[in-house]
Please model this.
Amino acid sequence: EKERTLAIVKPDGVSGNYTSSIRKIILESGFSIQREFTVHLDEDGVRRFYAEHSTKSFFPSLTKYMTSGPVLIMILQKVNAVADWRALIGPTDARKAKMTHPNSIRAMCGEDLERNCVHGSDSVESAAREISFFFKEAFPEGTTLEH
Ligand code: CMP
Model:
């Protein structure tokens, strides 16, 4: 059974010109990219997307990072998409990724625990919530998006 997950190329990934390498890895790994768009999130968007982190001490810094430039939002589809995309991006801490998962996407373009260049939904339930956040709730039909 095919599954969908939400991938984000974060501001450091976009500004570092990693988008085309990341897209190539995605397609070569057997995912199809169902939908994608670029958007520059504002503070409110970050707060609503990362609601579960909004009380954490790193949240102000995460907000500053995630609003620092445009991000690329993608819906990826394949069998086992959620776990396979998480495996492909590697550990949250890009510093650790460089040591333990040198072929991962975060090892390639991330920097540390915060600036880790990509996001992946952590469960099928999160994927459903995150996909509807970007493709229904936050940006209903007719919304004009930056490309
Ligand atoms: P992500 O997988 O998108 O989920 C939440 C993000 O918050 C995470 O990637 C990092 O960018 C950031 N993050 C998670 N934990 C920390 C932390 N302890 N300190 C700073 N940033 C963090």
